[in-house]
Design a protein that fits this description.
This is O-antigen ligase-related domain-containing protein. It comes from Candidatus Kaiserbacteria bacterium RIFCSPHIGHO2_01_FULL_56_24. It is found in: Membrane. It is a multi-pass membrane protein. Keywords: Membrane, Transmembrane, Transmembrane helix. This protein is mainly α. Among the domains are: 84 residues, no CATH class; 94 residues; 80 residues, Serine Threonine Protein Phosphatase 5, Tetratricopeptide repeat, CATH 1.25.40.10; 69 residues, Serine Threonine Protein Phosphatase 5, Tetratricopeptide repeat (Alpha Horseshoe), CATH 1.25.40. The protein is built from 33 helices and no strands. Helix 3 runs antiparallel to helix 5, helix 19 packs antiparallel against helix 20 and helix 21 runs antiparallel to helix 22. The longest helix has 33 residues.
Length: 727
Amino acid sequence: MALEKALRYVALAGVFALPFIVLYVANSMFFPFITGKNFAFRMLVEIAGGAWLALALVNPAYRPRRSWLLWAFTAFVVLIAISDMSGTYPFKSFWSNYERMDGWVTLAHLFVYFLVTVSMLTTEKLWRYWWNTTLAVSVLVGGYGLLQLAGLAVINQGGVRLDSRLGNATYLAVYMLFHVFMAALLWSRAWAEKNERALYSWFYGSIIVLDTFILFFTATRGAILGLLGGALLSALLLIVLAPRSRVAWRAGVVILVAIVLAGGFWMAREQAWVQRIEPLQRLANIKSDGITVARIYNAQMAWQGFKERPILGWGQENYAAVFDNHYDPRMYAQEQWFDRTHNIVFDWLIAGGILGLLGYLSLYLFALLAVWRSGAFAPYERAILTGLFAGYFFYLVFTFDNILSYVLFVSLLAYIAARANGAAPAPTKEPMQLLPRNSLPFVAVGAVVVVWGVAWFVNAHMIAANKTLIQAISPQTEGPQKNFDLFKKALGYSRAGTQEVREQLAQAAMGVVGANVPNDLKQQFITLAAEELVKQGNESPANARPPFFLGILLDRAGAYADAKVALDRARTLSPKKQGLLFEAGLNAYARNANDEALADFKEAYELEPAYLEARRYYGAALIRAGREAEAEVILKDDIASGAAADSRIASAYASRNRFDRIVAIWTPFVAKNPENVDARFLLADAYYSAGDPVHAIEILEALKRDIPATATQSDALILQITSGVKP
């Protein structure tokens, strides 16, 4: 009937529209490269899912056939739901936030997408159309990457690593990884079928070259090595599966060339030309790179968290609590608020415990079993698909998924399931007729209502809050009062992103403290931000971030006693994070609790003496306490290198009238860094304060000659000095 055909087209349109979300950037939204794509994905799945559901209820032909892969996916979604409900922050586990747009709501949408695709794309022709569509879109994505490489388009994340329309080089890399392997798979099928070999060779071959080229210039090591390792595994499997064929010989040549190139690169890794090329430089320094070391520390912290909740884990989006509680002080040079382990095994161990990890790994297991046991796949297809799974999993050992890699992974699972189902014997038992065929119009109306309701519940408030937040953090012609009102409006939407709204409000409140804003409005900002951070802390009691932000806000507002309470709470949740101890020490100084401040800075220093900031804080605290000899032992190497030429050290010495020490430390520093204007002004002031105006004037005169732009300020200071007025 016409309605059935229309619903089928709606479902297919939603599925075929999904490859294009990679091009969508929602510039009017918070995290524009993340939120826009995810909202588009959810709404397309909701529309396609509603149409499919109406069809499946009245026509058994539109229902997915039973398979181990379907049962595994179902069990995984249910297991993670249980983990999320029993976790430490169920609200965030379900909704996630704007930065990630993950959580169970995304997992549920991916499951619905799997059901729709495996039920609607039931022919090889449809699947080929779908894969060709996404491959064609990857050409557009790659073309934009070429514009970035040529300097004709901006690289959104800065630097030289291409990110195209994804806003993140790592996300672009795994996107290209999938398309390289799938282009190779379809090329192989076209070659085996001997139909229009030349045309397909140009089409798929060009895509492989372009997408590999773009992947390389993302400089994403996990994806580059995953591509190489997956390709080598595929080549090795081709040799094993057909040892006497010409394909086996070609695969052997590929393996030999790869080994030679890899060996040559490793021997040349310290050459200057390697260090000048960003992707090669990152590969060459992979063992010593701080990011690689941080991955190891994260894995160690995640293991400690797993041991606390080994069966069902902490729930999705809750690694932040584990990171805080088991923080390794050696992480001082890295991001201080990790929310992912950057390792897929540990991410799922934390999110779902051992059951969650096994559920996730079962998707790979049953997909590979379907590939290898089903008669639907030729040997070369088995080799390529196995290589793809291996390369993708290797990539995930060093990072995490995003919505585009999720979609491609689930599409691959559905493709394998659909082909395996097509090759399996037809079921002997007729499927149950749930509703009569003539009820389709009523079912369709019901589906429209359900889709509208789900879409509104899942998306409307989140989108409204997101757009309102963007307005709230942007300058308003009506002034800060308008920003305040917009923050209140954004807080009124009770969905994901509440934490981000609260944190942005806290940042705005700290900004208005020293701004030319009426005092009553300042107080309104501070009060609302403090109240919201308290709420956030109550909702996520295992996270140190809300009380820490609250402590900083109250410190800036001058409420030092209340700030101490918040900072003590944060320290309880994350006792080894130096940043919290620094803020606690500054708070103690503000309360005139100098001994307490010294103890805080000492604790931070002793956690990891290699941390320069900790040495500076502790050294300055020792100087203020009159223990200069101890300070200079700690700062000995920093004084020699110039790293001790820091405003905190200068302020501490000035508080003890030891201007001679400032002169001794800053003189060699200025000699090595003559372009540092602030350091030269500080040295001149130290000379004057030490009773040596002649040297002070000499420094200012030299500064005028070296940097003429400082002449006005230098002349003013010289005039003050010659007049006997302290600058």
